[in-house]
């Protein structure tokens, strides 16, 4: 047994206490030597003195027979005094400790000594009721011959033991889910690596990162996020049972260590896990969609050390994230380079936000009939001195992963309002459409930020349009509706981007303060039902008094389709690519 860390908190039984007991009991020893029971010979006063002791006191003969016990000892053991006196000490020991106790008792009586509390760690005493309680014991001996007695001071340390267990749990377990924490998982990983190296076994390390967790946590509150994390832990334990070691590293990241598993089996388990986590999460009567991305690293194929295994699994997980939700990816050597590039990209983006390098380009939105420009959409572009032109497809995911997406959105909003003011001053007013990210939509002060930006540049609100996607608006419908209504009250135009590609309830859309919807380019791809489908969507939007803008129009036959179904506006390469602000005025004048 490990030494009890609370031994310093236990007040030891002093030499004075042992001496006092010896003095009180010594008077009865001569009678005992004549065959008279020691328990009988104790006077009422001496019995009261023993019973007043806060710790249990137990007198034991050389053969293990109990002579007497005080009131505290009776309370600890659950027995009456006559049930202990004359009985063997073994009855107070848990079964697993009884076999070797006789040898220990003989050893003690052969060389009796005094032992204070706190030296032997936690011992266990079997109560009459059948349960065992943790105790600490001090030992003493009195008597001048082979008829001497051992005196045991017994202290119930249940509360201290429970405190020790709580501290141990907090040190090794994740308090939210009950899974191993990062430290404990690292210890077990090192131990399994040693065993695998000795036995020639394989290990598979799976790192999981939840998809859509931040949206749920921010949109529905931390209580919902905590509930989801506990549900994930429950599903993982149910799926794996005793097949793997589980841990929560922190946030929404989990680890699974599988022993004796090759790549094929690791793939199998990752697919089982992804399937288990693809089932929507129920919260307050709502079915919230989430999932996971999994990175897999193998011993000995990929790495020889625990640190490398965890690092490589992390790289593979980020690669899985980049492929979209619900993927499992094995580590490959080239991922180290990809990770370094992502780190570099995040740092260069941080510099661009601070020192410049970002720029807005504007793509016109025009009438289907007459090609009159009615607005422009602001699209972010980034040219880095070291990296060159960086596509939004590359830097937007990095901005999300590195926590810079809100700052990026704030930059776009500020730059767009500034440009609107310049065009107004030049006498060429244009409404500018700005995309709001899901992260911005969850900002509690978004309405105030937009109001402040409009006031800073003295921009009338009707010249600003804010676009949100269906999926963003539906993350938390009530909150999304409240925020959009607050923005609409400012006087800005609200547009729903990628209309028809999300999972929104059509009945719910009537409560959103929308003026426009934008059809994604997916609807323009040729298909047998394309014309009827787009016609139906446009008709439904018009029934809700919404204007319709088609995106991604690149061919003349697509434009003709828009005319045929009554779509009012479009944007796309057929009319114009996005261009810097300084080119927009010249383009309009041409």
Automatic annotation (TrEMBL):
PROSITE patterns per the UniProt record, alphabetical: EAL, GGDEF, PAS
EAL domain location: 342-590
Coiled coil, from the record: none
Species of the source: Comamonas testosteroni TK102
InterPro entries: Biofilm_reg_signaling, EAL_dom, EAL_sf, GGDEF_dom, Nucleotide_cyclase, PAS, PAS-like_dom_sf, Rev_trsase/Diguanyl_cyclase
Alphabetical list of NCBIfam families matching this protein: GGDEF (TIGR00254), sensory_box (TIGR00229)
Name of the featured protein: Diguanylate phosphodiesterase
Domain PAS as annotated: residue spans: 42-96
CDD domains with a match to the protein in the record: EAL, GGDEF, PAS
